[in-house]
Amino acid sequence: MRHQDGGLAALLYGPCTVSTTIGNVRVHVEEKTQYPFEHEVRIDIQPEREVEFPLYLRDPDGNGVELYWDRPHEQWPRNSEGGLNMFTRALDLDGLLKEAKT
Hints:
two-stranded parallel sheet, 5 strands, mainly beta, single chain
């Protein structure tokens, strides 16, 4: 689904594909999952060339967390297959507050 800011939003999880244009760049997105029977959602994004856009993912737990990774692609956490390694963890509020004070 196209978001109002020009990005993409995944609001439901199920096997699907979409091809669209973002900033004059063709982008193919494929969602591979057996959710909710398996707790893994794989989203493969294949743009024609490099393009920057927001991707909004529905949090099944309803936490409404927004993440932004402002680092070179070489520093992104990758899994053994080369995909982006994302996960759900409990928030370390004390650690976050300590980091904010430094």
